[in-house]
Amino acid sequence: MSATSRRRILRTEPTWLRRGLIGLALLLTFLFIVLPLAAVFIQAFDKGWAVWQAAVTEENARSAILLSLLVTGITVPLNVVFGLAAAWTIARFQFKGRNVLLTLIDIPFGVSPVVSGLIFVLVFGAQGWLGPWLGDHDIQIIFAVPGIVLATVFVTFPFVARELIPLMQSQGSDEEEAAIVLGATAWQMFRRVTLPNIKWGLLYGVVLCTARSLGEFGAVSVVSGHIRGLTNTIPLHVEILYNEYNYTAAFAVASLLSVVAVVTLLLKKVLEWKTREARV
Amino acid sequence: MFKRPGVLPGFWPAYSYSVLYLSLIVLIPLSAVFLKAATAGWPKIWQTISSPRVVAAYEVSFGASLAAAIASVVIGFVIAWALERYEFPGKSFVDALVDIPFALPTAVAGISLTSLYAPNGWLGRYLTPLGIKVAFTPLGITIALIFIGLPFVVRSVQPVMEDADHEVEEAASSLGASRWQVFRRVLFPAFRPALLTGFALAFARGLGEYGSVVFISGNLPMKTEIAPLLIIAKLEQYDYAGAAAIAVAMLVASFFLLFLINFIQGRSRRFMETKLS
Amino acid sequence: MRLTVSVILAAAFSSVLFGATPVKLLNVSYDPTRELYQDFNAAFAKYWKAKTGVDVTVNQSHGGSGAQSRSVIDGLQADVVTLGLAYDIDAIAEKAKILPANWQTRLPNNSTPYTSTIVFLVRKGNPKHIKEWADVVRDGVAVITPNPKTSGGARWSYLAAWGFGLRHNNNDDAKARAFVTKLYKNVPMLDSGARGSTTTFAQRGIGDVLLSWENEAHLALKEFGADKFEIVYPSESILAEPPVALVDKIAAKHGTTEVAKAYLNYLYSDEGQEIAARNFYRPRNEKMAAKYAGQFPKLTLFNIDQTFGGWQKAQAKHFADGGVFDQIYGAK
């Protein structure tokens, strides 16, 4: 079928409706997403560029940024490996309890962040299951970096898997089966067939997982201990600044997170577009 | 379309690893909250989760999450539709913006929304004279939850729209179906499962949301107090078991909801597969 | 690389020779003391260096008093705790058993080196003419205060109102309750913490009067501008005693008992008291109290032990689940 006729049939909504829907979509995006985001930026730059810069380079802010990057650097690879394994299992095989497994993967989305922190306190806290043993061996899990990592891994757990499963399901397994039948090893199949097919989905999952682990507040707040310069992540630092009535600095640091998010998401778009162009 | 473990390698390693990691990170820690609740004993658990204040908080949480999830589905559908089917300037940028609520710390979202909708805020100052109160009312909670839930809907629907079978659509319209009929009979049924997933995820996420809501809700007992806040209040009295009991009740509700959706989807997929083959 | 090694060696060597390894303390505190301890930690580090030649870094952790106490119970490695109310330190002693139950008798003045009280913050010019607790419960006055279930400061405010109700009704409990019920009818929203309430009142412009810690009210004037708000002292209020304590077992484990004790004792020194006064906490020391008398208007202060029989009783009666606070809201 020629490209023009396809386009004509696809776009059969009358112009007024099309424009109306685009307008509505833009309005809704503006109202529900842009406006809150704009409020962050306007308040962040309320007192000018210099104040913004001072707020994000100040010592406690720097240590918070470093900690958040460290936590994200550990969290994302862990969840990528899991996401790949889970997607492979669920999208390529039929087995008993598949729906249960799928639901269990979603669970962290449905768990209140407060509870996500609480569970690690119940396990690793001084009064928890492992608390006395950890205390005897002088190992600090919660109120230290390992606890923050655990809580973050928990909260961002489903992102990569959730992204890959529907994608791999819709792609089907024909190509992979062909590769195996033609004598490829499992690793060759994965590298040459699976990975190229799921590249964008995977990248997208990584972007979301990164953004969420940088931004997680509730769960981390429960296990962090809030020690200045030591166990405060970026969102916790934002809360501290806010509670010190230092609104401009609070929004400045928050805007940093939003910038990172927007830039990564745009970067992903650009990459996607370039590759598609290169292929054509 | 689906093969039993046969040709493809790696079922057991991938399966075992998934289950192991899931158990270590999610299931074992989560079981702690169940066991903690159990230490209180059934009468105490029941008494906790059925006390009027807790029930009122459940009502607020469920009501606001439900309203927000429904609104998110409608709004998210319109946004996804425009993004996937139309061309307009700045499309990529809008597409990237949709994920912002995932990335923005929830507390920042809450503060930002409160500053918009408070009686002296940018929007609040125009709404208040009209008699519309947003901040510190259930409406405010709902708006915060729409913000949180919106990306779940858009991101669930988008891939399905992208994959939608143009041929069926074209066939329908060439057979003389009106645009509305095509939408209602052909397109919408294909999107329905994804919308349902988005709805369930937004709903489940809304039930547990704390950081963004606590700033805008006003936290009045029996009126605008959400269930996660009661967990905090219980902890404040060192009542870990009581906090765990409320948490468990919410967890069970979310789990049930998510399972139901996955079950319905699994069935409809199998149904479509058998029909196709 | 070589430089690092030699620096480490030099440090190790000098510490062997002079015992001058830098010491670290963790002070787990509640929300309103951020500015106070920022100043005090610097002063103490200087004093300790001069006295012993050892560098001491005090790390700070701040949050709601109850949440902070829970963190210590669950294993946050606090050498000292400086919390909003004795009940929260009692809980640490009772549940984690890392400091003795009689902790409050170990330092002077109930282990509270400084005190505070609950005052009113109103808008400039006091348009609603709020002078006294009785004015706060008038119809048409919107009162901002946090949720007593989640905020220590809010519990002090609640008890201050209740105490006033008792004292002006011949200790009639029912009348005090009616008074407090009326007060909460005037409350449009409850933030989860004291600082959140101040933001609601000052930044969002909601409410006619904020029930606030005295030091927080002064800080709000400083942060938001003295031209926008003013502080009103009622004729009487509650004597709020935020206590401090050494966490014996953790300090012993860290080998910091000596410096931690010195840290707390230094709060009672002239300099410690002066820093407290400069941060709008009422000093215990008479010399400093006299020096800063102008800053702290006199008012009748009743304390929690005499009026309410101590924190344990007050907590159980008013703030526990199903307690009076819950009943006030349930009855509505």
How does this model look, in words?
The complex is a heterotrimer of chains A (280), B (277) and C (332). Chain A is an all-alpha fold and 280 residues long. Helix content of chain A is 81%, strand content 0%. Chain A is built from 14 helices and no strands. In chain A, helix 9 crosses helix 11. The two termini of chain A are 18 Å apart. Chain B is globular and about 65 Å long. Chain B has 277 residues and is an all-alpha fold. The longest helix of chain C is centred in the first third of the chain and has 19 residues, at 34-52. Chain C starts with a helix and ends with a helix. In chain C, helix 2 (34-52) packs antiparallel against helix 13 and helix 3 (65-73) packs parallel to helix 4. Chain C is an alpha/beta fold and 332 residues long. Chains A and B meet through helix 1, helix 2, helix 4, helix 5 and helix 6 of A and helix 1, helix 3, helix 4, helix 5 and helix 6 of B.
The span between the termini of chain C is 70 Å
Instruction: Identify the overall geometry of chain A.
Output: globular
Ranges of chain C where pLDDT stays below 50 over 5 or more residues in a row are: 1-19
Instruction: Report the portion of residues of chain A in β strands.
Output: under 5%
**Low-pLDDT stretches of chain A:** 1-10
Oligomer classification: heterotrimer
The overall average pLDDT of chain C, rounded, is 91
User: Would you count the extended β strands of chain C for me?
Assistant: 11
**How many E strands of chain A?**
0
Kindly list the characteristics that best describe this protein.
heterotrimer; A: 280 residues; mainly alpha; 0% strand; globular; disordered N terminus; C: 332 residues; alpha/beta; four-stranded mixed β-sheet; 17 helices; 11 strands; 50% helix
Summarize the structure.
The complex is a heterotrimer of chains A (280), B (277) and C (332). In chain A, 81% of the residues lie in helices and 0% in strands.
Topology diagram in text:
The complex is a heterotrimer of chains A (280), B (277) and C (332).
Chain A: H1 3-10, H2 15-44, H3 49-57, H4 59-92, H5 98-110, H6 113-124, H7 131-136, H8 145-156, H9 158-171, H10 174-181, H11 186-215, H12 218-224, H13 234-243, H14 247-279
Chain B: H1 11-38, H2 42-50, H3 52-85, H4 91-97, H5 100-103, H6 106-117, H7 124-127, H8 138-163, H9 166-174, H10 179-208, H11 213-217, H12 227-236, H13 240-276
Helix pairs in contact in B: 1-13, 2-13, 3-8, 3-10, 6-8, 8-10, 9-10, 10-13, 12-13
Chain C: H1 2-18, E1 23-30, H2 34-52, E2 56-63, H3 65-73, E3 80-82, H4 86-95, H5 108-111, E4 114-123, H6 133-136, E5 143-144, H7 152-167, H8 173-185, H9 194-202, E6 209-213, H10 214-224, E7 229-232, E8 236-240, E9 244-246, H11 248-254, H12 257-266, H13 270-278, E10 282-283, H14 286-291, E11 300-302, H15 304-308, H16 311-319, H17 324-331
Parallel strand pairs in C: 1-2, 1-3, 5-6, 8-11
Antiparallel strand pairs in C: 3-9, 4-6, 4-7, 4-8, 4-10
Helix pairs in contact in C: 2-13, 3-4, 7-8
